[in-house]
Amino acid sequence: MGLAVLGTVAGLDSYDCDGFVVGIGDNAIRASISQSVRSRRRRIVNAIHPTATLAPDVRLGAGVMICAGAIVNTGAVISDGVILNTGCTIDHHNYIGAHAHVAPGVHLGGDVRVGEGALLGIGAVVIPGRQVGDWAVVGAGSVVITDIPPHATAIGVPSRVLERSSSRS
């Protein structure tokens, strides 16, 4: 795309700017690089597409990326380093944990909790009041009707847990 590659985190000190965006897709790597940037006392800023819609009382952490057409409704809390991808909907009173990725076209009902580092695949749906655990993965097109435990991978309609790993972070 003709964009400059800045280099390593160590080289950030040579740039005079208002802040940095960490837009790496891998949740664990994004978390690690964000921590490195912060440890260098550099500011991480939010990137919000102009077509995104956010209720006035939404609380955003630092380093949040909200893509085109995303909708975030009242009472939602979006933690540090979260990616809300194209056309996703985050209904009322949701909590999205740090460094989670909500993929394009995901729909979260009201009062959903998404844990740290979780990945919700393209077009997944989570019904109201459910939880997706820390570092869990919900497959594309899945419909979550029961809570997904931490470090689990769940797929299907309705979703079912395929595997659990000891750690993803």
Per DSSP E runs of 2 or more residues, the count of β-strands stands at: 19
Specify the helix fraction band.
under 10%
**Mean pLDDT, nearest integer?**
92
Largest sheet: 8 strands, mixed
Structure characterization notes:
The chain is mainly beta and 169 residues long. The chain has a domain at 47-161: UDP N-Acetylglucosamine Acyltransferase, domain 1 (3 Solenoid), CATH 2.160.10.10. The chain has 1 helix and 19 strands. The strands form 3 sheets. It has an 8-stranded mixed β-sheet with strand order 1-4-7-10-13-16-18-19, with no helix packed on it. The protein is globular. It starts with 26 loop residues before the first helix and ends in a 5-residue tail after the last strand.
Features:
169 residues, six-stranded parallel sheet, 1 helix, UDP N-Acetylglucosamine Acyltransferase, domain 1, mainly beta
Which secondary structure elements does this structure contain, and how are they paired or packed?
Layout: H1 27-39, E1 47-48, E2 53-54, E3 59-60, E4 65-66, E5 71-72, E6 77-78, E7 83-84, E8 89-90, E9 95-96, E10 101-102, E11 107-108, E12 113-114, E13 119-120, E14 125-126, E15 131-132, E16 137-138, E17 143-144, E18 152-155, E19 160-164
Parallel strand pairs: 1-4, 2-5, 3-6, 4-7, 5-8, 6-9, 7-10, 8-11, 9-12, 10-13, 11-14, 12-15, 13-16, 14-17, 16-18
Antiparallel strand pairs: 18-19
